[in-house]
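Side project, low priority. Logging it here so it doesn't get lost.
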Amino acid sequence: MFDYREAFAAVSETLRTEKRYRVFTEIARDKVKFPRANWHNEDGPREVTVWCSNDYLGMGRHPDVVAAMIEEAERGSVGAGGTRNISGNSHAVVELERELAGLHDKEAALVFSSGYVANQTAIATIAQCLPNCIIFSDSENHNSMIEGVRRAGCEKKIFRHNDVVHLEELLKAADPDRPKLIVFESVYSMDGDVGPLHAFADLAKKYGAITYLDEVHAVGMYGAHGAGYAEEIGAMDRIDIIQGTLGKGFGCFGGYIAASREIVDAVRCNAHGFIFTTALPPPVAAAARASIRHLKTSSAERQGQRRQVARVKRRLAELGIPVLDNPTHIVPVMIGDAAKAKAASDLLLDRHAIYVQPINYPTVPRGTERLRITPTPFHDDALIEDLARALADVFDTLGLERRQASALAAE
């Protein structure tokens, strides 16, 4: 008889052998002390500083956001009660979609249960609505986008990362009469580089394609109103479909697309990942709307984050800590080995009370393992100094090579 238990155990053992076994650190966030949190381990709770949260601006603990969630829960219900088409279309979610459409200057928006589901579902549905569609996808797109492309079941072309020349070669070779969908990101979350949005929009116009932009690591943090990197560089009106998340810069939960009324309506009526899943809880929708409204008018959080990101990069450069250069808020500390990345993370937590999760394959290619640091406006100068000195100690303890101080340190 087949040994099911042994089969599953073998899978985990393989990951342990490859130093890729995933260990989740139990963290209880503290609204008052953010970015500090309590690490719960076998010795009991211990206060640590979190340096890898995607709550990039700390909006998950903003008083207006918390108050909006509590008010909606007390007035209505904690849960959504089911799918939107059966249990009713929550007023809080409808208001959130109006807010999102306005944020991105689009006719309509549609909220999903997560950013992953938004990509997986919307990309597939949009392509399936276009007869004989070809999808052109950046080679470094997120797994959720790859899944969306796969589920579409239509012809796909993968262009080299951010390579405008290669994309044009593929577009030029395609039948001019076939519908074309180009999917790409603005801020790439692991390397922190950005896509050439204007160049992609130019190609879409030239070859009769429509564009789908993932802004999940940019919304809230870029642009005058927090609408994302496309707003930051004046490209928002040139993008057909903008996808975002409510779970990172906005500090809440959920995902969405914003586009023309026709595109949103087609997805709403056909997307299985939307139709057959429980709707976003009204308190979460209310909290997200409050966060968006705040960041539309407040630049303090964005300015504070940029200031502290620059400080982190400069201080690490001074100590020769190898950081992948990029123009965004992502600070990838390069290790290059899965076992050493895990050991570095463990040392930071055990010895220095600093929580940074190691990033290994398949999230990043083998040989590029790293610690992904994400400063917030609330990581003050003292915490930055603690981080810098801790990383220097960990690098020296593990025999990891430090570089000479870079030009960035002198800026």
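Brief comment: Residues 300-318 form the longest helix (19 residues).
Revisit when time allows.
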